[in-house]
């Protein structure tokens, strides 16, 4: 793989949020009907009015799938209009993957990421979590191939898929469902992705305008950039580091017979990988010292 040099301030990628990406509403059904009848694009649907991080991210992820890479986004609560769309997220009151309906607001919906893991108890999937559940591996595969010319084997893809949920989607699911980080919050964080996307909505006392769909598109660009930063960190920074750590782990007894030291010929971020390896091999706490050559 060709080594790539990244500027700290940007990811070199071709955004899916291009000028030709149309985000429209159904305020005028005549215009809506005419537009979709003349377009050969797939139709992604979500609700109108104020938007939230989960459906913004869900729509953004769908642009990284083969089926919906060239789509038109429709924001509506008109059921007649929604019935004409190819896929819907965060509206409609139905979760049926076969019918491509991904809403989570119905009272009967209780799905979490992993029902066997108490960490996820009470954090229901939002529309972002639902789209990620069904399309996440394809989104990851396509994004890393298109942007970094990287291909992931099945085991690595599963690892990245799980990490991406923990690092990004879980936060979105929790916030959308009103689950705080802690029962006794000493302070709150107001600069996360959900907060930044929320700023694109008009304030309650702002003059009424017709640019909400434009704002939604701006929010998608922000969600896309955040998604790719997280994916870059996992696949282009942490994965290479994990290999360095695994090699050092395998040789730890050569460095010291106790196996409690881990030595790196060159520095790499090591803590997260060491903890993962220890847990996987049921040797939690075995490493007492980390030494790296600088």
Strand percentage lies at 5-15%
| Count of the domains | 2
* Biggest β-sheet description: 6 strands, mixed
Task: Give the rounded overall mean pLDDT.
Answer: 93
Helix fraction by DSSP (H/I, runs of at least 4): 40-55%
Question: So how many helices?
Answer: 9
The side-by-side strand order for the widest beta sheet comes to 1-3-2-4-6-5
Structural class estimated from helices and strands: alpha/beta
Measured distance between first and last alpha carbons: 25 Å
Poorly predicted residue ranges? none
Work out the number of β strands: 8
Determine Rg (CA atoms, Å): 22 Å
Overall 3D form = elongated
Order of helical and strand elements: EHEHEHEEEHHHHHEHE
Structure explained in plain terms:
With 294 residues, the protein is of the alpha/beta class. It folds into two domains: 218 residues, no CATH class; 44 residues, no CATH class. It has nine helices and eight strands. A six-stranded mixed beta sheet has the order 1-3-2-4-6-5. Strands 7-8 form a two-stranded parallel ribbon. Helix 9 links the parallel strand 7 and strand 8. Helix 4 packs across helix 7 and helix 5 packs across helix 7. The model has no long low-confidence stretch (mean pLDDT 93).
